[in-house]
Amino acid sequence: MNDFRYKILKNSGINHYGKLTFHNNKEIETPVRWFGLSLIESKEFQLEIFKKAKIEAFLSNAFDLYYTDKKEKRKSLITDLQELKLCHKMDSGGFQLMKAGIKGTSNKFPLTPEMVLEKQLEIGCECGVQLDFPFGPKLTKIKKKKRLDQTIRNLEIVMKLINRNGVDFTILPVIHTVSDDHDLLNYGLEKIEGLLGGPPGLVGIGSLVPLVKSMEKNGIKSFLYALISLRKTLPDSCIHAFGIGGTMAYLAVLSGIDSYDSNGWIQKTAYGVIQLPGTSDRYLKKENHNRSYLIKERKLKHSKKVINEIAMFMNCSCEACHPYNPESWKEKDWKLKQQDFTGRSQEAKLLRGIHNVSLYQDELLKIREAIKNEQLVEFIKSRLENSIFYKYISFVEKLKEENIENLRKFKVSSRNY
């Protein structure tokens, strides 16, 4: 059966600090971040980063384990991570299957609900994502509904398999939504409730990334509206958002989600980017592309403060930064650290990876504390005060005040927001 327990330990409006207990009695606190595995970097590289960053949870992919992990390097890495007692969520690979369909190569990669569940049970993950059908670009509403129906049918297949075989396993049901289409959201939830016999205690929401990337046409507002609508509809459930990481995770948590995953740390590490609390991507020195790099005097857009980004980086005490963190650092110390963290060498990438993942994990712990102390809004404001996303905090706060009936009538394009 679909066996798990979700206990809300602190309810602060629509924001939860809680504990998720899986079918095998392994527990994890929420909000939680699941770190994706790299298809390129070595097992040893990733293992060292995850160990030193002290992560709690990681994400694998059934499609990858079937079709791209030819030498079973990811499978071996998963085994090592499981020995560290980390929680493991396995995605189905529905997104990869959709991309193959767009390219016309899906016949080369057969993937069924049965295959996905078989791989999840074989590996022994804590949480398995059902095989879903995300919304591709430029789909009509009719085609979106069709793909949503396919997702629900797959959930029915998986539930029957679990019950028929009498196994205890935690399945993550998935719905997809887009823009401010509350009808589509309600339709998916009603279908899931019909299968489960009531509201899902654990549910994932997908097809959000295109909204986040669509800065025009109210894409960010549509994304936040979808999350808040789902939270208002399911006030006691554990909600997972797919593919939401980086700065956007702050707004997603503020909008009520309890769980999220991202592979972003991999690309940022490879591209030479480092992260600072509440700061978008920064390079260690000025590059030819003229993107933002660390400076001593960064004026914040929404306050009169000036921050020293180099000092922030030098004062980091993660395992990668600790050797470069004397009690009183000087310019030569900064130059040495800048030199060691810069470049394409494996050593530099490893330092950046440990730093970035450590920061993401540490920020997650701070988010939990902020929820417990009912200081989440203040914390998010402190993190986004120099971000283009700061203006959306007031939008979220206004939506949080609305009841579900008013939200159903709400249109993202409204000038009132």
Task: Please explain how this structure is put together.
It is a single chain. The chain is an alpha/beta fold and 417 residues long. The protein folds into 2 domains: 5-262, Queuine tRNA-ribosyltransferase-like (TIM Barrel, Alpha-Beta Barrel), CATH 3.20.20.105; 272-362, no CATH class. It is built from 17 helices and 16 strands. The chain has a 9-stranded parallel β-sheet. Helix 6 (141-165) links the parallel strand 7 and strand 8. The radius of gyration is 21 Å and the shape is globular. The termini are far apart. The mean pLDDT is 90.
The fourth-level CATH homologous superfamily of the largest domain is: Queuine tRNA-ribosyltransferase-like
Mean pLDDT: 90
Strand content: 15-25%
- Give the neighbour order of strands across the main sheet: 8-7-6-5-4-12-11-10-9
Q: What is the class of the largest domain in the CATH system?
A: Alpha Beta
CATH architecture identity of the largest domain: Alpha-Beta Barrel
- Cα-to-Cα separation, first versus last residue: 43 Å
Instruction: Determine the CATH topology of the largest domain.
Output: TIM Barrel
